[in-house]
Amino acid sequence: MFKNHNKDNTYINYLGEVLPFAAIGLLVIYCLKNVSFTNPLLWIPETIAITCIIGLHYWKENTLLNIGAGTVIYMFLVQVVFV
Asked: What is the DSSP track for 4-27?
């Protein structure tokens, strides 16, 4: 894609460091954009799932585990606990 294939390209290195965090931030904002705080039943499942994801991230530091476990926890809460 780039004519100069050296590994010393500071702009590409910078994008490689910054873009993953920016993408995760955008995904979090997109997922929480329709959360209503009028009723606790509408935002407690999201809060519990996010707390579990943060705890898993600090414990295991595995992105795929965080995504999978967060999805399973959220879906369990929404479909079984907070019906």
From this structure: ---TT-HHHHHHHHHHHHHHHHHH
